[in-house]
What we know:
Strand order of the largest sheet: 1-2
Distance between the termini: 26 Å
Largest sheet: 2 strands, antiparallel
Helix content: over 70%
Order of helices and strands: EEHHH
Number of strands: 2
Radius of gyration: 22 Å
Shape: elongated
Strand content: under 5%
Amino acid sequence: MEGETFSGFGNGRETDGKVLHTFQKSFVQVQNILDQNRLLINEINQNHESRIPDNLTRNVGLIRELNNNIKRVVHLYADLSTSFSKTTEFSSEGDSSHLNSNVKSGQKRIRPV
């Protein structure tokens, strides 16, 4: 995949393979965290059902880890969103020269679909 280009963004403009590699890497990280969360939730449920005091105490740490993982996923998605916005904005700049005059005149810029 590295070094390849993809023309799905920005009205047929090619996007560098590095950008797609970054997206893929982030999605893999998110999936790994979500898989880990599934295991944590299963363990938390088992500990809760057991009603053993040591297991219930252990759940406090597991729930903290779960919350931290959720924060990491939110952060990764926020970074992906920002990267995607920058990528699509950059790729559409060359096709929107007629729109730039609207921006200068105080009108909102219309984003291509």
